[in-house]
């Protein structure tokens, strides 16, 4: 069994039997499987690393797609095929001058981009990016710069891939007012047992809900428009070269779809500037690290070139505050619904995760003037 990257630590004995069958379907002809293990810290799918014995055969990432979240997994694969094909072509044409990879889709034996097992589970596979690792949280400004650069690079490479050519695989994703609506509907169905933490979250949502429409209103007014976005550019989706620590890939392409570029920038910053990560022991210790924000934006603008308009840049502050609020609201709603969306290892984990994101919002707001200045400086290349 190989030991690479971070893992949830499951061994072969804990593997679902279906994973072994699926690994066989995606392994190239003649390759022998050396080991399969649970891999990464994703909240949505089940992920495995399949190591192959033949040294010239490339190990791959195998996933059982969560079809409760992604109702149209075939469309997800179509989007991934379109975006990886597009980026490959651009990289071949422009050669970035540093290591930068995009994980290709590994076809099943029949040549298709997925396999449905006899129980109806949807499986797919992607190339494993070698000699790279991801960390669950950003550890210094240099790391933040790399994460920002990776998102900027991605945005630049897809800036000429029309959003309309991609399917909407998750309708309403990052449309904050819809999450508020869902939260209200859940509360209307049942009043939660009011623990101190539940009360804190409910009070927080009441105080902040008025701002939930800030990006959608700008979109409605024609000031922001849909583009091809990544959809989930959190820090641990940026792989770093194992030796140099420089960004080498932005992985997890499930949520590539039409959206506002502000969703990505907000999501990246709320993750990148939270050095304690999404699951720290003490939510009250969480803070938004403004110096990481400066570094991440510097990296972003250098990777992105001129993809942002002045209007886009002027919305960055609202975006980071909003996406942190939105993610907290999504975690809290899921807690109230019984953890049906985000995978948990304990019953109150999504409640704790909500408190973390809300603490981040408060920290962002406390530093508003400084953070706005950082954004402004970065947008002007200072
Ligand atoms: C989910 O795929 P994964 O586990 O990295 C979620 C993101 C959240 C993230 C928080 C499709 O991402 O929106 O930001 O958890 N993905 C989806 O960790 O809902
Ligand atoms: Mg994801």
Helix content range: 40-55%
State the shape: globular
Sheet having the most strands: 6 strands, antiparallel
Count of helix runs: 12
C-alpha-based Rg, rounded: 20 Å
Q: Give the end-to-end Cα distance, rounded to a whole number of Å.
A: 48 Å
CATH superfamily of the largest domain: Aminoglycoside phosphotransferase (APH), C-terminal lobe
CATH topology of the largest domain: Aminoglycoside 3'-phosphotransferase, Chain: A, domain 2
Structural class, by secondary structure, is alpha+beta
* Percent of residues in beta strands: 5-15%
Kindly report the average pLDDT value: 94
Number of domains: 2
Q: What is the CATH architecture annotation of the largest domain?
A: Alpha-Beta Complex
Low-confidence stretches at least 5 residues in length (pLDDT < 50)?
1-12
Say how many strands there are: 11
Description:
By secondary structure, the protein is an alpha+beta fold. The chain has two domains: 17-130, 2-Layer Sandwich (Phosphorylase Kinase, domain 1); 141-379, Aminoglycoside 3'-phosphotransferase, Chain: A, domain 2, CATH 3.90.1200.10. The chain has helices spanning 17-26, 73-94, 141-158, 176-189, 196-208, 214-220, 261-272, 290-304, 310-314, 316-337, 349-366, 368-379, and strands at residues 33-38, 46-52, 60-64, 105-106, 115-116, 122-127, 132-133, 227-229, 238-241, 247-250, 257-259. The strands form three sheets. Strands 1, 2, 3, 4, 5 and 6 form a six-stranded antiparallel sheet that branches. α7 (261-272) packs across α10 (316-337). It is globular, with a radius of gyration of 20 Å. Residues 1-12 have low confidence and may be disordered. Residues 44, 232, 252, 254-255 line the site of magnesium ion.
């Amino acid at each position: 069994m190989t030991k690479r990257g971070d893992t949830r630590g499951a061994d072969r004995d804990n593997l679902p039997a279906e994973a072994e069958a699926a690994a066989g379907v995606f392994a190239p002809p003649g390759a022998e499987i050396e080991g399969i293990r649970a891999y990464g810290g994703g909240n949505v799918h089940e992920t495995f690393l399949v190591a192959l014995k033949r040294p010239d055969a490339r190990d791959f990432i195998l996933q059982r797609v969560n079809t409760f979240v992604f109702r149209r997994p075939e469309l997800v694969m179509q989007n991934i095929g379109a975006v990886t094909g597009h980026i490959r072509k651009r990289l071949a044409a422009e050669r970035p001058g540093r290591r930068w990879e995009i994980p290709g889709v590994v076809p099943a034996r029949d040549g298709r981009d997925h396999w449905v097992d006899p129980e109806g589970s949807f499986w797919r596979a992607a190339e494993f990016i070698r000699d790279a690792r991801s960390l669950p949280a950003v550890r210094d400004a240099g790391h933040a710069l790399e994460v920002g650069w990776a998102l900027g690079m991605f945005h630049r490479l897809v800036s000429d891939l029309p959003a309309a050519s991609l399917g909407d695989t998750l309708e309403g994703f990052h449309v904050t007012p819809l999450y508020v609506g869902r939260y209200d509907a859940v509360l209307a169905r049942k009043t939660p047992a009011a623990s101190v933490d539940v009360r804190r979250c409910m009070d927080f949502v009441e105080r902040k809900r008025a701002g939930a429409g800030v990006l959608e209103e700008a979109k409605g007014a024609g000031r922001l428009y849909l583009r091809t976005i990544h959809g989930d550019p959190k820090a641990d989706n940026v792989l770093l070269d194992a030796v140099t620590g420089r960004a080498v890939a932005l992985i997890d392409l499930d949520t590539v779809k039409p959206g506002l570029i502000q969703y990505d920038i907000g999501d990246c910053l709320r993750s990148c500037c939270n050095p304690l990560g999404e699951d720290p022991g003490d939510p009250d210790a969480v803070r938004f690290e403004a110096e990481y924000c400066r570094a991440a934006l510097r990296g972003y603008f250098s990777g992105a070139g001129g993809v942002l308009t002045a209007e886009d840049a002027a919305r960055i502050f609202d975006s980071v505050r909003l996406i942190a609020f939105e993610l907290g609201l999504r975690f809290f709603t899921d807690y109230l619904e019984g953890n049906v969306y985000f995978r948990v290892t304990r019953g109150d984990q999504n409640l704790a995760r909500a408190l973390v994101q809300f603490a981040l919002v408060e920290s962002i707001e406390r530093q508003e003037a400084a953070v706005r200045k950082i954004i402004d400086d970065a947008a002007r290349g200072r």
